Amino acid sequence: MIVPVIFGSVRVERQGIKLARFVQKELARLTCSSTLVDPLEHRLPLLEMQYSDYEPGKAPPVLEELAELYRKADGFAIVSGEYNHGIPPALKNLLDYFLEEYFWRPSAIITYSGGRFGGVRAAMQLRMTLSELGMPSIPSTLPVPNIREAFTDEGEPTDPQFREHSKRFFDEFYWYMQALQNQRKSGVPYTS
Predict the structure, then answer these.
(1) CATH superfamily placement of domain 2-186
(2) Which residue among 119, 167, 178, 182 is least enclosed by CB atoms within 10 Å?
(3) Rounded Cα gap, residues 48 and 162, in angstroms
């Protein structure tokens, strides 16, 4: 399984990157190949044209690279902080560049916050957005409170029980990826 891990923060001293590293490790446990999609690396400007608005082969190289990755994907892991009870602007901008490339693939919502609620309000907004983009989210979410203390810089949980606690979430995501992969092989209801 190929899974882009789409991370949404560009803040100074961002803590969620540690959670994104953990997600990649857990996907590897399930024999998934993951690629971190980081807005700090890709530096996409504010959206003026979606990838599909460009003539074939004329999009900027960064968009062509992401489109190729997304078309190969079996699912998308979305790692999001919660900014003022909502989705970080860098994540929304990164997501909005594409549409058809997401279709018929599940998404897993992993959120975090500096406080005790773990980004659950952003998770609810993400459900709405991801569904509209054609990558419906699995029923479970993985909220992580107190992100600063929750992981080492290498992405290891500081709570020894966290990995076991999150196992069911990742297994559920894998199940949905397999199910939709099998259905895509049989065809999809429509294409764009």
Answers:
(1) Flavodoxin domain (3.40.50.360)
(2) 182
(3) 40
Backbone torsions φ then ψ of 165, nearest 5 degrees: -60, -35
DSSP state letters, 3-19: EEEEE----TT-SHHHH
**CB neighbour burial string for 4-27, b if at least 16 within 10 angstroms, e if fewer:** bbbbbbbeeebbbbbbbbbbbebb
Which pTM value belongs to this model? Answer: 0.95
* Neighbouring residues of 91: CB distance < 8 A, sequence distance ≥ 6: 6, 7, 8, 9, 39, 78, 80
- The span from the CA of 144 to the CA of 124, in Å, is 14
Polymer length of the chain: 192
Domain boundaries, the chain: 2-186
